[in-house]
From TrEMBL:
One of its GO terms (cellular component) is cell division site. SUPFAM superfamilies: Cell division protein ZapA-like (SSF102829). Homodimer. Interacts with FtsZ. Activator of cell division through the inhibition of FtsZ GTPase activity, therefore promoting FtsZ assembly into bundles of protofilaments necessary for the formation of the division Z ring. It is recruited early at mid-cell but it is not essential for cell division. GO terms for biological process: division septum assembly; FtsZ-dependent cytokinesis; septin ring assembly. The keyword Disulfide bond does not apply. It is found in: Cytoplasm. This is Cell division protein ZapA. It holds the Pfam family ZapA. It comes from Leptospira brenneri. The keyword Cell cycle applies. Keywords: Cell cycle, Cell division, Cytoplasm, Septation. It comes from the Bacteria.
């Protein structure tokens, strides 16, 4: 039996005074949570920049979220390097121990 693809979820959300129909493969709860998060970020920016247009606020919000994403990716990449460095360090220690023990016997 073939696996069926996830059914797209469709919800309607109010974000920053506009109504959007959002379709995605994630659960409707997750989509709603993401939309709420974006709205909260837009509201924060609107408080800080009360004379900015909705378009400018949306672009600034997108830039801020993209910056956070890039920073998280960088942290993730560095975290993925740690096990590799740890493994290489263990190999070097093992080789050193073999060399030191080998010299004494």
């Amino acid at each position: 039996m073939a696996e069926s693809a996830p059914q797209p979820q469709k919800i309607t959300k109010q974000i920053f005074g506009e109504t959007y129909t959002i379709v995605g493969e994630a659960s409707s709860g997750y989509i709603s949570e993401v939309a709420d998060f974006v709205e909260s970020r837009l509201l924060e920016l609107a408080k800080a920049l009360p004379s900015a247009s909705k378009t400018k606020l949306a672009v600034l919000c997108a830039l801020n979220l993209a910056d956070e994403l890039f920073q998280m990716k960088e942290v993730s990449l560095k975290a993925n390097e740690i096990p590799e460095l740890e493994e290489r360090t263990k190999k070097i220690i093992s080789l050193l121990e073999e060399g030191i023990i080998g010299d004494h016997f």
